Amino acid sequence: MKIPKLKKIESVKKHHGISLEDDYAWVDQPNILEVLKDPKKLNSEVKDYIETNNDITESYFEDVKNLQKDLFNEIKSKIKLDDTSLKFKDTKYFYWSKTEKKGNYGKRMRQLIDGPGPEEVFFDGDLEKKKFGSEYFGIGSVNISHCDNYMAYSLDLKGSEYYKIYLRDLRTNKDEKDIIENTSGSITWSLDSKSFFYSKLDKYHRPRKIFKHVIGTPIENDQLIFEEKDETFTCGIGISSDEKFFIIGTSDHITSEEYFFPSSDSKIKPILFKKRKRDVRYSIDSWKGYFYVHTNEDARDYKVLKCKTDQIDKLEIYIPPKKETVIGGLEFLDNYIVRGETSDAISKLYVRNIKTNKEEEIKVSEEVIGVPGASLMQKDTNTTKIRIGWESMATPSRVYEYDIETKEKKLVKETEIPSGHDPNKYVIERIKAKSHDGRMIPISLLRLKDSKQNGKSKILLYAYGAYKHSVYPSFSASRFCLIDRGITFAIAHIRGGGDLGDTWHTEGKKKLKKNTFLDYIACANHLIEQRYTYKGGICFYGGSAGGLTGSAVANIAPDLFFSMLLLVPFVDVMTTMLNEKLPLTPGEWEMWGNPIKDKEYFEYILSYSPYNNLSKKDYPQMLITTSLFDNRVLYSEPVKYIAKLRDVKSDNNTQLLKCKMEAAGHGGMSGRDNSITELAEEYSFILKTAGILN
Description:
With 694 residues, the protein is of the alpha+beta class. The protein is 20% helix and 33% strand.
């Protein structure tokens, strides 16, 4: 099939006296946000180009259709399709979720505590999808009122993250007329169950207003209770752990500010807790007459402060900061506080006795590298029991009922792999690579125990590297479809992410962003030097900002790779950061810098932005995905990228574009089977390009 050409229209714009050439600038339609709501407004030439590329991609996979079917069945065989979550004990009901073999969206269940009473399905995802008749079915929130009689739920029926809120009377199982459009999807109920709060999206898809809706009243009469004036900030609302206060949080990526008001007050007058201060983030929670403040002020990796709720100006240190250790949030019981912390990309759990102030670690597993977790098992906090969990790259999730006082641990749920799984067949390793500036970058590896470290194996090296997002060494059953075929899986815990704390994040953003890419290259080279793989034996796998990492590295060191998967990749950083009308752009300037106002940021972004730095060289095989309804990374970015890549590259390798024209968002298609289908296609690309076709 002939590779299509996208027309070029000469475009030169000057910024800070520097010419920015972009022959495909016309693809960035002025009404691009309207396309997210109505695909009919997509430029016809762009539409034709996308559809032809989709046909080419489909043709490419023709010879591995059987492999895709095998992978689909193999992945599905590793999932317990008919599964039930552990029950949470509320005041009147037990609540839990349930999946079934033939379903894709699961069910939300409840049962009266003081039974006997039947199990009640209060939200059936598959039935709801059928009712709405939408191909895409994104579930935002499903929240039950405190009186247990109403359910407010939010749905995105396109993938563009414009959520509608619906209201249902659970006593009659009928929806009310209260339908609220263009929201963020979040819902917080009032204690009297007569109203709820939600965040409204502005014309640029930013939640900057919070409203209160009273059941049965016209939507146009909803009360505005908070408005964020700074266009770089977005806001939301929640309720404190003790339900004494509603808490409004507003923030950008590095700065936050919070307000509170008593949950019992009929008149809402939000009170500012502490005025925003640049580069300071904090969040508040209340428990038994005290505010607990989780903040990075004078503590790069956070600390916890405490004050009486009526003395917010008298803060004292409750949990001090620790060097190179990220202090996590808190879970409250009457007599204990459970918290987490992370050091060197390894997480731990701690429990603190409120009366004695003594603290000790909760040992979940003898394994060192893994992911612990803790959660409450009931609303009544007068208990010594919690749930703790553990998983590693080789060990499926296990949940225990844990008694804080007796330290007794009872296994209550273990993730079942129906097709079978033996953790002893695999080995987990943690090694470190020295980056260009001497920083040691952790790498987590998972491989077959009997695999040979002889420099001949292929590696899938995953990375993200942005937004202080940590990539945990967690379990994924589907991943073994690759590992069992001889491919080593590895995570590069590169800077820009939060794996090693705030400094780790800061050293990979703004004018230090290139550290992210050089860290990845250092990890790749170290794996080659240590004979885990060889030059050209690596597959890059990453999405969104991770796709930026991969495409930037492709410009610097393309010979490291046999293939790359760039999923909804952020490849045209410059164009996006220059358009302040896009949904995320103003808030993103704290990550990337503002090239509109600052010449140095303009020059720096221009020096690494993948689209702007494509040049005549050999690039690896690529599969690039996008979605027409993705509002986070617009479809125009991958479209322009693939067109320019084909213009300038010197290789004969296959670089593919697949754009989902409907029923998909930033996270792909909705529904379990659709997700497995997408994953099977991605894995088939990896295996085909690796020369492993069985």
